[in-house]
Amino acid sequence: MPPADPSADRRWLEAAARLAARGVPLSRPNPSVGAIVVRGGMVVGRGWTRIGGRPHAEAVALEQAGELARGATLYVTLEPCAHTSPRGRACADLVATSGLARVVVGCLDPDPRTAGQGLPRIEEAGIAVDLLRNRACEASLAGYLSVRRLGRPHVTLKLALSQDGALARPPGESQWLTGEIARAHVHAMRSRMDAILVGGGTLRADNPRLDVRLAGIEDRSPERWLLTHGEPPAGWKSIASPNEISAILPAQYLMVEGGAQTARAFLAAGLVDRLLLYRAPITIPGDVPRLPELTAPILAGSAAWQHIDSRPLGSDTLDVYEAIPCSPE
Q1: Is 58 tagged catalytic?
Q2: Which of the residues 14, 58, 79, 257 is marked catalytic?
Q3: For position 329, what pLDDT does the model report?
């Protein structure tokens, strides 16, 4: 086997992470994992976690590779599971008997049934194992890692904003701030969520459907949740405060939509992991709901948020931010 190439390892792990995106969120309650079998620089097998969590990514990739797996390298985003299940064989055991020469893993599994046990089992079979903590792999597992480490879903706050932080046009004008391309992108993001939450004000004012209206993936519409102290309407579920989002489990991915009050409630509670801000190229004067603290100049000087992506969507712009973890004192 040729010596390891760190840059090639990173690229293959990143490719596996992109593959894992195909299983989000349909793999729930399991994480969506990506796996790629590489032999002589060529992909001979690939897989991602399928609907309902089975089969696992490693099983799919190894079955596709067949005999070509012997002497090859498996790149997998998460440590192969080490626990037995009536639904299938432990992936660590499957990998250990595969004839692979090497396994490269992008993230340890925090599940106590596997944590740190999958890799030694593979090594005991004479297969070289490298754990290369990879940012792309961890990002692809954000929902699962949040549930395991924090006991809650990964939370994305999605808002449409004007350049000066307004969330709506004046009464009597169009309800839309952004154009069709940006709104289609929102639907694509919804399709990757287990649940969407809005506040009571948004429900009363807009009666939102919160579904996915893109051809071919309409069946990926998430659950609808409401932030309220009262009873939710038929077809909705509710929590009384942001701190109750553990009730949304086993959901791994929650998107918060709605107005300024709900957004501020989640931000104040420190429960927002990612911001999706769809910025319209307009300013809106007057007395309308607004969040000036989320304008681009303010966030640029923030120590709490890291700007990780920006892309044009028609005449609008999507800015994506990730929360910067607080350093321990």
Answers
A1: yes
A2: 58
A3: 43
